[in-house]
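RECORD TYPE: protein structure
NAME: Mannosyltransferase
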Amino acid sequence: MWPKIKTTVAVFLGVCTFRLLNTFLVQSFFDPDEFWQTLEPAYCQVFWANNQHKSSSLNLDCEGYTWEWKRRPMDKTSLSFLDRSFQGPIRSYLSVLPFHFFYLWLEKRKWDSHFWVSQGPKWLMAIMAAAPTDVAVWILAHWTTSVSEEPYYCLFCSMASWFHGYTLVRTYSNTMETTLLTISMVLLAPEILGKKNTAMYCTMSSTIRHCLCFLLGGCSVAMRFSSIAAWVPMGVILAIQQSQESTQQSSATAWYSKLQPALVTLLGTCAVFGAMGIGIACVVDYCVYGFWTIPFLGSFHFNVLLGNSALYGSHPWHWYITAGIPAITGLWLPFVLNDLWLLVVAKSPPPNNTMARRNVWIIIATYALAHSLSGHKEFRFLLPILPLFCLQAGPHVRSLVLWLSKARATNGLVMFWLALLFLPNLIALLYLGLFHQNAPISVNHKIAAMAQEYSTMQQSESHSRHTFSVHYLTGACHSTPLHSYLHGPGPVRFSTWSLDCSPSCRSDPKILCESEQFAKDPVGFVDQAYPVMVSDPTSCQDSIEGSCSAMKLPPDFLVTYADYATKLQSRIETMGLHEVGRFSHGINGLKLGTTLQTGDGYDGEGNGLTKEELAGTYKRIGLIGGVVELSIDEMVLYASAHLP
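PREDICTED:
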């Protein structure tokens, strides 16, 4: 059944507050796509384009655009529309729109401070994506169970999940896919999750709900074509349900009479309105790219037909089942497995809506197995089905809590057991959200603050500087956010350089990407990138204008990791740069007592450092009176001598 509107609003406001607080616990770097597929393109369209007085169409010279946005067919004239789409850009701007409008609003209101540009999008996702996903799980639980308390346990599982806390407030297209899927399942709940005769309780026309559901599905597929793995089983389940309902209401027995309602649903509702959702995305992309294209076809061509997704890492086919699902479900895994066991193996399903739970498992299985066909696998690709795992785990969490509380199931005792279940998830979130890979975020905050301070100090001078160069020599491409985490109010702007690792070099075994060249030989790479500067930093100052255009000048800021900094120390000093800060990035070694040592922090073979160099490269933290010692990798920031 649908919960009461007043109760739903109260739950939503409470969850919004929780997710807004959640954003303060997520100050780390998880994956480049969080920034480079959403925030950076939005920044380029709003702030960079306006500063450069460019048109609203895509400006490829903006540094925030990766190859995914710049991909174009070699022949734009003789190819058909579909061929141009296959060979064109692979990212749709539809997933960028919320951040585009948010940045536009900040700019118009003159509220584009460093804090709001960098942290504001997380607040937006907390309200627009994370909270609706949690509430959708709570609403869906009203259809999968008849026990009044169980929806709140499902809501608890969703809100307490470490992976939800770690990812739902991030600016991923995966997060939007998750929200669209759960909201669409709410729209279809009476049909695919409801019991017999429950559809009559719906206040919205079933036709409107079905059309809206698959319209959202088309938008989801346009953003991430792999999400079709969830929408196909939803459409098939709906078609079968509609066919069975039509058969019960009709005396016709011919096979085509049974097949007709299913085909009408699949072709007349699912396909048509799904195509309309894709059409909406195409219009948005036309306004941005300046030409008609279907980016998800480009993504399908690049990742599936060309098999290039494996260029960015691959795992065996069973990885999602043996590693991915156990990792993201975490503490809820035993409850999820118990639900599956009761439904499939034991043949004794829990006392609730068996059809609903079976259909949820069909969607989960189809999604996981379809994604297993791709060699490139990531934890975040499973995010859209994590709410469904929480939906399945909730009733069993309630059973455990009541069993532990036994006859004295008081509110205080129940809260104690729930807090005990929440604690491991919170510990994981605190470590991963505040410490692990925090350096890429912190270093950009520092750069923005230093540039703003210097620009303010120089405002009274006629030759004051407002543009600063930043070079990221980190051994990996896109290992930090860019302009979206450097922006500040006023005239301060940044010119950046990141190491290249695009498919044009990754797919050619004869070519080494810049990221690979630097990781293999950082000293040689720097000597080649800054040839004159390393040998004589003043040699270009009095030369004829343009004679140094073929080489890179020393930047105002240089970012690298501690092990590279040790090897490049003399070169960096010659370039007129000095160290201004170190930022903890993560644990890279462990020492127990005087014998057991493991990790790159203690083994020089992994980074080419001697034992003596290792001792001075990484920060060491002693615990338990020195019995346990942790080695901490750090990101190092260098600045030009003229900066404070």
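COMMENT: The first strand starts at residue 467 and ends at 472.
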